[in-house]
Amino acid sequence: MASASLTPPVLVGRSAELAVLDGHFDASRVRGAALMLTGEPGVGKTALLEAAAPRASEAGFRVLRIAGCPFQRGVSFSALNQLLQPLAEEIPALPARQADTLQAVRGLSDEQPTELLAIANAALALLERSTVETGPLALLVDDVAWVDRPSATVLGTLARSLHTGPIVLLGASRTGDESFLGNIGIPEYEVRPLDDVSANELVAERFPAMAARVRRRLVAEARGNPLALLELPVPLNDLQQREQGSLPAVLPLTERLKEIFSTRVAALPAATRKLLLLAVLDASGELHILQRASGGPDGLAGLSPAERAGLVQVDAVTGRLVFRHPLTRSAVLDLSTSEERRWAHGALAAELPEGSEHRARHLADAAVGPDDQVAALLHEVAYSTLRRGDAVGAITTLLRASDLSTTGTAKARRLAEAACLGANITGDLGNVRALLGTAGHADPSGVVSLAAATAAASQLLNGEGDVDTAHRLLIGAIETHTWPEDTEMVEDIFREALNTLLMVCFYGGRPELWHSFEDVVKRRRPPTSGRLLPVILGTFGDPAYGALPVLDRLDHLITGLHQQTDPVRVFGISLSSSYIDRLPGCRGALRRIIDDGRDGGAVALAIQAQFLLANDAYAGGQWDELLEITDEGLAWCETYDYRLTASTGHFQRGLVAAARGDGGTARETADRLVSWGNPRGLGALRVYAAHIRALSALGSADFDAAHRLLRALVTPGEVPRFMPHALWLLLDFAEAAVHTDHHEEAAAHVAAVRGTDIPLTSPRLAMVTAAAEAMANPDVIDHALFEAAIATPGAERWPFDWARICLAYGERLRRAKAGGAAREHLDAALGTFERLGATPWSARAANELRASGIPVKPLTPVESEGPDRHALLTPQERVAAQLAATGLTNKQIAAQLFLSPRTVAAHLRSVFRKLNVTSRGGLRDALTGPVP
Question: I want to staple 918 with a disulfide (CB 3.0 to 4.6 A). Which of 88, 92, 660, 664 is the partner?
C-alpha cells in the first residue's frame, strides 16, 4: 500500500497517547520493537494509527499499512499481501528461493506457498533488505483480530524477530479479542476513553451549534468513546441539538454504533432481552421492581447471560443493576419492538405507587391512544417538572398531555399552557402563535383561557411593546377565569399571568395600570397564592411606600436562594431586590438561571437575569462587566425577538455611556428608547431616556438641561406611588435643582422622600437621602449630613454615588474657603471617577481641585483623527485595545498576552477613559488609522 499522507490528523485529548507512539518510534530506530494498542470498540485505535503514520514518516520511517477485514478473514495471505504489495519491486533482489516463496504467496507463481516459517523468514529478509535500501520501516496493522490465520502466523513470527533491525510494528485490536500478537509477549498499551474535558471539546468542535446541556448529555452517554461522541448527534434534528426540541430518554444509535453495541445484545436469549428492556425503561436499577415487573420470582435468572457477556452487573454497594456502558441501553431499546416497549412501560407502571411521577410517564408511554386519566396525571407532572427548574421538560410534558386528551377543551388548555410557559420562561415567542392557533382549532368555542391570554399578552408585550392590548387581554381573562379544583396548577398559571401583568404595568409606567393590578389581585387572587406576590408588588411596584413592611420577608427569601430550584421564583425574588439594593445576595441564583439559558433552558428568564446582574454591576461600579453582560443579553433579545426587554439593556449601556462622557452614544440610546417607546405608550422607556440625558448633562455641568429633564419626571414635594425609578433619581434631581438655584424644590423633594419608607429601605438610599438633604440647604454646609453620608457603612459598594457625594461636599467646602478639607474629598472623588472611567466627572473634580490650588494633570481625550490618537496609551494598553477591537473577550486577550483577565480589564478601563469611548465598537472607531 502507498505511504500515508504527511498531514497528521488533529486528535482531541490524545497528547499522552501520541507521546507514547513518538517514544516507540524513537526507540525503534536501532532495535526494532512491537506494540499493541488495545481498547473498547470506537475508542480511537484506528484514529491513533492514522495519526501515527505521518508522525512515523516525519521521524524517517517508511510506512506500510495492513488492515484486517472480516470478509477476507478466510482468504489465505490476504493481509500479508497488503504488506508485500508496496515492496513488490524489491522481491526479485532476494535469494531465488525466498523470492519464489513470496511470489507464490502473491499468487504470481505456479508453485504453492511452502511452510509458514519459510514464508516468515522470506518476509523478514525482504523487510531487512528494505531498511538497508530506504531506511527504517513502520508496519501499522489495524483490526488485528480480523487478519487471516496464515498471515497472522507469519506476522506473529515477524513480531518476535524485529530486534534484528530498525523495524517497528504497531498493531490495534479490541480488548479481549484473540489475535496473533495476543500471546507472544509483546507490550500492550490500552487506549482509554477521553476525559470529560476532551469529550466536550470534541463535540463542541464538530457540532458548534449544539446546546451545552445537550452536549453534556451526549458526553455522559458516550463515556468518552470518540466514535459515540461523533455518531450520537447524527440522528438528532436541529431543534433537538439546540434543545428547542426534547431529547429521547434513550438516545438512538446510528448504523455504525449498532454494529458495535447491538451485536452482543442481539445474541442474548429473548427472556434476557426482555429483562434488559425493563431495566432500560425503569432506569432505577432496582432489582425488586424488575422482578415484579417481569412476572415471577425467578424472573431475575434471565439476567445471567447478560452478566456473563459483560453487558450489565449488579453493583456490590447499592445492589442495583447497572449497564457497563450507557449505549448498551440504546442497543437494547433499538432491538425492541413498539409492542414490547408498550408492554414494558405498562408492566413498570403497575408496580409503581399511585401519584408517582414515574408511573404517570410510564402510563403515557404505554398508551396507544387518547386517555384523559393519563393526560390528567401527566398534566400534574408537567408542573412538578417546572418547579424543579426544567421548563423545557415541563413544556414537552404538557404537549404530550395534550396529545393524550380526548376533548378539544382539555387539549386546547394544555397547548395554551405550553405556549404560556414558552413565552414567559423558555423564550419561545416564535412558537406562541402556532400553539395558540392549534389550541383554537382544537376548541373553537372561542373562550380565551387564562393561559392563552397570558401567552398572547406576553407575545404582544415582549415582541411588539403593545402594553395596552396586553393589559386589556390579561385583565379580562383574570376577571372571567373560573378556578378549577387543581389549585396547584392554577397557581402556576396565575403566577405567570400576574408576572406578565406586572411587567405590563412597569413598562407602561402609568398609575392607572398599577391601580387595576392592585384591584384585580385583591378580588381574584386564589386562596392558595403564595407569599411572594406582596413582596414583589411592595418592593418592585411601589418601593417608596410598600417595601418596608415586606423587607424582612424578602431578606429571608434571599437567604434561601441557594436552595431554590424554581427559576420563576428565583426571578421574582431577584426582581424584588432590584430597586432596594439587595441584588448582591441574588447573584449566584441569577447566574444559575443564566447558565440554564445558555444551555437552552429558561432563556426568557435568563435574559431578565442578565439585566438584573447588569443593574447590580452599575450600582457596584463594575461597568466593564455591565457591558459584557448586556452584550450577551441583547444578543439573546435579538435572537428570540424580545424587543421590549432589550430596552432595559440599552438603558443600562446608555447610563454607562453618559457617566463616561460618550455623549453621542448616550444621545443615540435615549433617542432610540423614545422613538420606540412613545408611540406605544411605554412610560418606562421615557423615564429611561430622561435619566440617560440628565446624567449626561450633569456630567458636563449642563445643570439647566438636567433640571429641565428631571423636572418633567419629578414633582417637588411629591413622591408618587408606583414609580420605582424615582429611587434612582433622588441624587440627580437634588444636584440639578441646587445648581440651578431651585433649592426650595430640592428641599421639598427631600422632605417628601423623608415622608416615605425610602431612607429606611437600604443603606444606599439612606446615604443619598442624607446627601440630597445636605445639598438642598443653601445657607450653611451641613457637615453632619455630608459626613454621615460619606461614612455610610459599606459605601464602597456604590462607588459612583459615593464619589458624587464627595464631589458635592468638596465643592461646597471649596467655595467656603475650606481648601484643606475640600481637597480630601475632591481627591477621593477624582480617584474613584478615574477608576470608573467617568471622564466628565473626573474633569469636574479636577477643576475643583485646581480652583483650590492643587495642580492636576489634565486628561484630554484623544481625538479619533490624526496621528497622535494613541499618544496616551502605554504599549500594553495599545496591544490590549487592538485585540479588544477585533472582538476578543478579556479572557481571550489575557491568554494571548499572558496576563490575568482582571489586569486586561484594568488596561481596557484606562484605554476607554483615555480615548473617551465606552464600548468595544467605539474602540474600533478610535483605533482606525495608522498606529504611531
Answer: 660
